[in-house]
Amino acid sequence: xxIGISTGCLYPMLTEESVRTLLGQGFDLLEIFLNTFSxxxxxxxxxxxxxxxxxxARVRSIHPxxxxxxxxxLFSNYERRFRDGLDIYDRYYETAALxxxxxxxxxxxxxxxxSTLDDEEYCRRFSIMQEHANQFGVTLLQENVSGFRSGSNxxxxxxxxxxxxxxxxxxxxxxxxxxxxxxxxxxxxxGQKLRHVHISGSLSDHxxxxxxxxxxxxVPFLRELHRSGYxxxxxxxxxxxxxxxxxxxxxxxxxxxxxxxxxVPSDTVL
Length: 270
Hints:
Radius of gyration: 18 Å
Structural class: alpha/beta
CATH topology: TIM Barrel
CATH class: Alpha Beta
Distance between the termini: 6 Å
Helix content: 40-55%
Shape: globular
CATH superfamily: Divalent-metal-dependent TIM barrel enzymes
């Protein structure tokens, strides 16, 4: 397991400035949170890729800026809109491939959105999106999100029953907290289909602080991840208001590395 960070931690700083800032803080593993359509342009991506390559950094995942729009775009009752939405998400998959990323993150269907889609139809559409992603050599990951159908552990388990080959997940600890769940229960619900982890700390009155600042027992969490066979990366993902100084980000990384050394045998920590 390696420790990385999301550029979303610096939003609304421009994405390329976020990358530059995080590289300056010593990070070499990133999630890129794209924020507008122009950041999908190939010239822009080439510049971003060059910056990453020069600093020997790699991108693990891409987070679409259209996440809050997915209910309407991809999971409404209007099938044609879903078909058009596939073309938009193909651009994310292509972006991931260009930047060398493995994953694209999906929020899915909000529980507040009026849609009659049952779980079977949701999974059918997810499978189609996964097929598109795979054509670009990347994997679409369903994230557990509070206020979305994926916030239910039962739904995560059901996805694996309906589409055992296409289901794949990212566990976000802050979203688990917001659902009133222990992140470990989410990890267990995702089972062997867990591919990626977004991590943060938590306080009784604040569900998103930097790892090391809250009361979330991170060492047991990492230990359980290792015992379950998880060998992916751990990405710090918090909001800009979750900390005061940029240097706190690198301090949080150091904290997580120490936690890893306690939780995982030294010959498996990279």
